[in-house]
Amino acid sequence: MYSLHRIIVSLFIVVLSSSAAGINPYFLPAGADGAGMGSVCIMKPGFWPSFRNQALLASFRSFSAAVNYESRFNIGELSTRTAATIIPAGRSSLGIIYSNFGFPHFKRETMAVASGLRLSDNLSAGIQIDYFLEKSSGEYSNIHMLTFEGGLIFLPVENITIGIHIFNPVPNALRKNFLPSAIRTGAGINLNKNLFAGVEAELSSETKLLLRAGFEYEVAANFMLRGGFCSENSSFTFGSGYRFRSVDLDLGFATHERLGITTSVSMIFNIRERK
Questions:
Q1: Which among 155, 265, 199, 184 is positioned nearest to 40, based on CA atoms?
Q2: Are the C-beta atoms of residues 51 and 84 closer than 8 Å to each other?
Q3: Shortest CA distance to 233 belongs to which of 13, 21, 16?
């Protein structure tokens, strides 16, 4: 059983970790692959990025399921557990995701349904409906919130991708509880068949402008190394990934100048590829 002191300290760390790391606490995890690249992900095709920019769902070709575990600063009470699936269908795909953050005395659950559609050879769009449920022990009431987010993907030339994403474009005057809004934009380039690099900028109603940069390099067949940087708290990230047949295994680590290291691990099962 948790003592009152531990509950108070844990809740303080929840608030501190979200604000100090410059991360919108309602964003779904970027997956261990994105975490290793400084969370540069809104323009890079992949399973977890498809829930950070839903337009990427349009290019996802495999019926897949995945799980992700993120431990912020290696504190159990700040861990996030996520499961998701993507179902491709013609020019569009459907994504379903569930995420659980916290511990018995403070818990945030996220459930979302997303869809992406290819509008043309160079343009895709997507949208996602989010439902948040926050539970606290004691006499505190549960908090329910509903919003949406969406994004665009544009390919101006063959090896460059531009992504734009908007989260919660709903005025808080219409809400009972505050929910931050954010807009992100970024560009990525495939420098060759083995090396990808990208940059992002994010502006939120809660934080100052954030800048991110990251890369992914396939050093050997099916083995990737990743690195990145986020301007908030000068956070450096690194990670690796390996594909074994139809399973992707990824690890990601993000540093914080005062609070330590956040560890992420993901497993993606590519069950069947769309033809």
A1: 199
A2: yes
A3: 21
pTM reported for the whole predicted model = 0.88
What's the DSSP call for residue 224? E
Domain ranges of the chain: 4-273
Residue 212 CB neighbours (<10 A): 25
Residue 106 and residue 11 in contact, taking contact as beta carbons nearer than 8 Å = yes
User: How far separated are the first and last CA of the chain, in Å rounded?
Assistant: 52
Specify the residue for token string 């474009």. 169
Distance CA 189, CA 169 (A): 28
Other C-beta atoms lying within 10 Å of the C-beta of residue 230: 25
**Burial class of residue 119, CB neighbours in 10 A (0-12, 13-18, 19+):** middle
Each residue of 67-120: pLDDT tens digit? 999 999 888 888 999 999 999 987 889 999 999 998 888 899 999 999 999 999
Return the structure tokens found at 273: 């590829």
Q: What are phi and psi of 150, to 5 degrees?
A: -165, 170
User: For residue range 138-189, what is the model confidence (pLDDT) as tens digits?
Assistant: 777 789 999 999 999 999 998 999 999 999 998 887 788 889 999 999 999 9
The yes/no answer on whether domain 4-273 falls in CATH 2.40.160.60 is yes
23 band by pLDDT with thresholds 50, 70 and 90: low
